[in-house]
């Protein structure tokens, strides 16, 4: 699993504790910030949206995913 895929999965799971750490590691390894945003953070939320629409995820889980994305954006 690539680090960007790992970040997307972290956002999807709402693991905001790891989202910032993985984002920082990606930045430190030279990955462009826009790539991190598009292929990591937004990609994770792209998994959340259809699951929420299908009733497979609920508001608290969506909020946790959004918080994980926000933590990644703060880095």
Question: Any key phrases for this structure?
Answer:
single chain; 75 residues; mainly alpha; Methyltransferase, Methionine Synthase (B12-binding Domains), Chain A, domain 1; 4 helices; B12 binding domain protein
Detailed description of the structure:
The chain is 81% helix and 0% strand. It has a single domain (3-74), classed as Methionine synthase domain (Methyltransferase, Methionine Synthase (B12-binding Domains), Chain A, domain 1). It is mostly helical and 75 residues long. It is built from 4 helices and no strands. α1 (3-13) packs across α3 (33-53). The protein is elongated, with a radius of gyration of 12 Å. The protein has helices spanning 3-13, 16-28, 33-53, 59-74.
Which helices and strands appear, and what pairs or packs with what?
Blueprint: H1 3-13, H2 16-28, H3 33-53, H4 59-74
Helix pairs in contact: 1-2, 1-3, 1-4, 2-4, 3-4
SSE string, helices as H and strands as E: HHHH
What fraction, in percent, of the residue positions are helical?
over 70%
CATH classification class: Mainly Alpha
**Rg (C-alpha, Å):** 12 Å
What does the overall shape look like?
elongated
The number of E-state strands comes to 0
Assess the beta-strand content as a share of residues. Answer: under 5%
Going by CATH, the homologous superfamily would be Methionine synthase domain
What class do helices, strands and sheet pairing give?
mainly alpha
CATH architecture classification: Orthogonal Bundle
- The first-to-last residue Cα distance is 22 Å
CATH topology: Methyltransferase, Methionine Synthase (B12-binding Domains), Chain A, domain 1
Number of domains: 1
Number of discrete helical segments? 4
Segments where pLDDT lies below 50 for 5+ residues? Answer: none
Instruction: Name the average pLDDT.
Output: 97
The biggest beta sheet is recorded as: none
């Amino acid at each position: 699993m690539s680090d960007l895929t790992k970040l997307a999965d972290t956002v999807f799971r709402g693991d905001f504790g790891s989202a910032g750490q993985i984002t920082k590691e990606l930045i430190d390894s030279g990955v462009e910030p826009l790539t991190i945003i598009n292929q990591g953070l937004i990609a994770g939320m792209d998994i959340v949206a259809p699951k929420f629409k299908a009733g497979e995820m609920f508001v608290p889980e969506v909020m946790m995913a959004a918080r994980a994305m926000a933590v990644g954006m703060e880095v």
